Amino acid sequence: MELTSVLNQSLTYINSFALRCAVGLNISGHIQAYGHPMPLNELARSIPISPEKDMMLGRLMALLVQKEVFAQDEAGCYMLTPFSNLLLTERSNMGAFTCFITEPAFTKHMCAMSEWFKDGEAGSTVCMAANNGKDIWDLFRENHELGNLFNEAMASRCKQQMGVFVKSYPHMFADLNSLVDVGGGTGTAVKIIANAFPMLRCTVLDLPHVVAKASKDDSFNVVAGDMLKKLPPADAFLLKNVLHDWCDEDCVRILKGCKEAIEPRKDGSKVIIVDIIQDFENNNAKATETGFLFDILMMCCHGAKERKKQEWHDLILAAGYSGYKIHPTQLGADCVMELYP
Ligand SMILES: C[S@@+](CC[C@H](N)C(=O)[O-])C[C@H]1O[C@@H](n2cnc3c(N)ncnc32)[C@H](O)[C@@H]1O
Fold this sequence. Notes:
The longest helix is centred in the middle third of the chain and has 25 residues, at about 145-170. The chain is an alpha/beta fold and about 350 residues long. It has 17 helices and nine strands.
């Protein structure tokens, strides 16, 4: 039993790479285009792969069916599942996240974790140790391909999250005139918010080389800036999957910066945080495990962390907010926190 567990745990990365392969071959797209359950040979011809690899493709599909990425009917033909629906490029394109997280230029950092524990300098991260002291944001700026993959991965997840978010929490944006999405990447979230709430003036703020890739769209403004410095004034600030990238000290600085930049006029002014709460009572086993995995990822990439309820409470109060509310979400491991200045 234990032997199987060790083998299984050690082999788990094969799941990630099988998924990466499915994305690379666009298997979801081929099954969708076929229009009904797809036999193996039809899938193989439509990718296309050479006929001597058909059986190997069948073995890849067997693993992916076992992981519920795809399903099979009684005749053994392949069908999409809710999982593979998320890989379709015209829907959420979550395969972009798979490709980024399994990209060798990125996974090489994870291989250096034990050396970093033993020899890493204080204040360095696993990524810094593996990249001559450069932090991950410098790495994304210099390695355009990796940086673009990261931006695309974030945008894909964002599209999926924001669709749910604006429908579930319309009240969150009521009575606001302006919102800044701090660390908002290439503007996916503000574009969705601006479309849903056309009266709201939306702005995305991110690093110069990131916002340079934002879509040219009249529905929102673009600011190249540094979230650790002065922020443009607004009624509301969104920090979505941002604070888990930063240590407590920097989080307090960012939250204080938002509070200072909130326009004084308004009832209803707020900061909205979307991030994992590790010990949130609504988390199911998958959300809990996802929280642990992201926590190690944040440790390696940023020297940062996912936080428990008490840790969020301490940060929010240390930044001087008068109160906050936590909303459970349909966003898996992520929760929404609404902070009042
Ligand atoms: C994990 S991503 C989250 C992106 C987006 N909020 C989302 O949910 O998809 C963090 C973002 O913070 C940006 N960032 C990092 N350091 C920053 C800084 N000093 N000032 C502004 N943005 C920064 C990164 O470029 C990246 O787009």
